[in-house]
Amino acid sequence: MDKNQILDYLKTSDEAKLAQLWEKADRLRKQYVGDGVHLRGLIEISNYCCRSCHYCGLRREHEDIQRYRMPDDEIIECAQMAAEYGYGTVVIQAGEDFGITAARIAKIVETIKTQTPLAVTLSLGERGDDELKLWRGSGADRYLLRFETSDPDLYKKIHPQRAQTISDRIAIIRKLQELGYEAGSGVMIGIPGQTYETLANDLLLFKELDLDMVGVGPYIAHPDTPLGQMPLPDSPQQPRPTELMTYKMIALIRILCPEANIPSTTALATINKATGREFGLQRGANVVMPNMTPRKYRALYEIYPSKACIDETAQQCRHCLRGRIESIGRHIAAGPGSRTRRSKLNPSNANTNPIPLF
């Protein structure tokens, strides 16, 4: 698929053409990753952040927020619960919080790997090579770092640099791959100043980086941020942060990166609480991330308001997701869902007799 074809799908509202897109993405999803849906238990361990991103409720300047850091024993307890529920992976996520030391994260990872069969994914922002190397050596399997947009000028406009640092998330992603992590990334859809061409470039960069995981979601600004009260530009080239645009991106990612793990995200479930996750799974996604964070912390991890599942317990979330997944004829997959392990364990999913893309 070339850039012009990508742009055509991003811009179209033709229902017949979109139906073709959904069907192709779902067929490729079934061929390359099967009908199983992998569950990644999410633990939001801290809402401290040293960054000043212009849309995020965790930004350091946001004073109307109660900050927290989960103690180690609670984090380990959440991971053990995820293992008991049969999840294959736990995702340890936080703002860019240097108050949680690299050594502490290493100890948490080592404990989880010793006490459970889980794969461990870290999502802790831009970190130094030494920290990333330490955590990989401690047993971390994956790292998620969304580059948010492939347009460097747009990135700088909404992501101010930390003092005396220069952000280069693409370089960090390549370093993660060099260190042996399964690397994941993603973008926001509908950022003010974004264009359809920007989104097309994002998709092509996903393919170029050969990512193991790719997650996308609609741009949702927190109201207590610089961008929270600003309307989107009134331009025909400005993508809207809609449910439909999110499905288009998920489907196009599956076509361009057929072996990748692709989540049907919380942000998608937030803008369509009734069926958002299900539609995402039917249009290319194969991962869902149930929240394991204790309820007393969930509402405090407010990147944007009205997040889905804020009031659910981990057990309620587990049962709800199982029902949603089975309602569309899919099943919960076993194991960590590594792209490498999947191809080794399931030769039938290998790239034999591939479906023509276009």
UniProtKB/TrEMBL annotation:
Listed GO biological process terms: sulfur compound biosynthetic process; water-soluble vitamin biosynthetic process
Positions with biased composition (Polar residues): 345-358
Sample GO molecular function, one term: metal ion binding
Pfam families attached to this UniProt entry: Radical_SAM
Keywords tagged on the record: 4Fe-4S, Iron, Iron-sulfur, Metal-binding, S-adenosyl-L-methionine, Transferase
Positions bound to (3R)-3-methyl-D-ornithine: 123, 169
Matches recorded under SMART domains: BATS, Elp3
Binding residues for [4Fe-4S] cluster: 49, 53, 56
Catalytic activity, EC: 2.8.1.6
Signal peptide: none
Domain Radical SAM core intervals: 35-259
Cofactor(s) this protein cannot do without: [2Fe-2S] cluster; [4Fe-4S] cluster
Cofactor: how and how many bound: Binds 1 [4Fe-4S] cluster. The cluster is coordinated with 3 cysteines and an exchangeable S-adenosyl-L-methionine.
Protein name (Swiss-Prot/TrEMBL): Biotin synthase
Region (Disordered) location: 333-358
Residues the entry annotates as binding S-adenosyl-L-methionine: 148
The keyword Membrane appears for this protein: no
